[in-house]
Amino acid sequence: MKNLSRAATGIDLNLIPIFIEVVRCGSMAKASLRLDMSRPAVSMALKRFGMLFNVPLFTRQGFVSGANALCAALDR
């Protein structure tokens, strides 16, 4: 059996539910309230999750963040 632990893969599986909640809520602020996390903690988690794919998952247009194509594909 393969070892898929964080130590072996470098992937923190705790980042996935944070990503899903931000996509569902459409806002990091709303997701942070639902997850009972601070906004900077949610932002940092998304940054770490995006580093796994070497692309930003959200694009920023003024004060609004939108999911890019990769983000939408991961949400399916």
How would you sum up this structure, described in words?
The chain has one domain (12-74): Arc Repressor Mutant, subunit A (Orthogonal Bundle), CATH 1.10.10.10. The chain has 5 helices and 2 strands, in the order H-H-H-H-E-E-H. The protein has helices at residues 6-9, 15-25, 28-35, 39-51, 69-75; strands at 58-61, 64-67. Strands 1-2 form a two-stranded antiparallel ribbon. A hairpin with a 2-residue loop joins strand 1 (58-61) and strand 2. Helix 2 crosses helix 3 (28-35), helix 2 crosses helix 4 and helix 3 (28-35) crosses helix 4. The model has no long low-confidence stretch (mean pLDDT 77). Pfam families: HTH_1.
Keywords:
76 residues; mainly alpha; Arc Repressor Mutant, subunit A; 5 helices; globular
